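Notes, p. 3: input format for complexes.
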Amino acid sequence: MKALVYHGPGQKAWEDVPDAAIQEPTDVVVRVDTTTICGTDLHILHGDVAAVTDGRILGHEAVGTVTAAGEAVKGFGVGDRVLVPAITKCGRCEYCQRGMPSHCQTVGGIGWIFGHLIDGTQAESVRVPYADTSLYAIPAHVTNEQAIFLADSLPTGYEVGVLAGQVRPGDTVAVVGAGAVGLSAILTTGLWGASKVIAVDTNKFRLDKALEFGATDAVEVGPNAAADVIALTDGLGVDVSIEAVGYPETLLTTASLVRPGGHIANIGVHGVPVELPMQEMWIQNVTLTMGLVDTVSIPTLLKMVASGRIPAEKMGTHSFTFDQMDDAYDVFKNAASNSALKVIITPA
Ligand SMILES: NC(=O)c1ccc[n+]([C@@H]2O[C@H](COP(=O)([O-])OP(=O)(O)OC[C@H]3O[C@@H](n4cnc5c(N)ncnc54)[C@H](O)[C@@H]3O)[C@@H](O)[C@H]2O)c1
Ligand SMILES: [Zn+2]
Ligand SMILES: [Zn+2]
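Output follows (348 residues plus zinc ion):
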């Protein structure tokens, strides 16, 4: 089969690899019908994620069809259309039982294994460990183009941004970074009744998208961005400030927007140390949260996608086929100049 293989920082190739195959009785093999690229894949190609080594197939999001099932798998069979989420869970370890499968201990001690510790989903097929507890069946009327964003972006914006940030009715919320993850936070902040949602980004196209996705205000990054946001909150700062980029300067901006007693929710994947001004922050009674998504909100979000409450399909702006994988990465990497949000990648 063919797959997108990582060969060290800045290097990848769509090339021939051995077919995905069952290794454990709890595995299934899924033929990938739709996949996409995440900001985290760009961080990996940038060399920010040391655990990803030469030869690894990239990608941690897929919708596909089961083509083989191990003998212990009870809930899924050949032909089933499934969502392969970014997090794999055994369902039995201490973290899975605590509802925190992001730290499932069974495969490499972390729940994010695809395109990280084992081969990923930017491939014609993928082996899925712990299929029974990790996969989700997709209702017939939910399309692949809607379901694919439930694999990572939507639960990440919701869980690590909105839920961790404890958005409550009436809150003012800032979201720094309006990529798919930031936009997912914007979409789902509305579900909790935020009174004001301020999107902050360098990219005009994404700010326009943010307004379409439910932001009430958009602020383009520049020397006065923080002051502009604070002016929108009567000079107080926001109740919840969400970081969805992953750079030191964007976390500093995010932290500077919050009011006393507020909440800073970091979603971004960071590759270098960040120095926070604790000498100013300690007296503000703020909470800072961060973490890897658990994807435990998928059943909730799937219901809202299925009913039309969350227009997930709006995330996909460009479509490519597997043999155009390089073009898909180029468009996603240069999203600003391409008016791109998420790319949809299919076999043909
Ligand atoms: N914590 C988790 O579990 C988890 C899961 C998935 C993704 N992530 C991370 O979330 C972040 C966002 O992912 P994505 O897929 O939306 O990425 P993306 O690259 O599509 O979006 C990033 C956005 O940030 C904007 N941006 C860049 N520089 C900026 C700046 N200086 N100020 C303001 N905005 C700026 C870009 O224009 C873009 O709109 C990434 O760091 C990704 O690795 C975290
Ligand atoms: Zn991701
Ligand atoms: Zn587990």
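The two ends are 14 Å apart (CA to CA).
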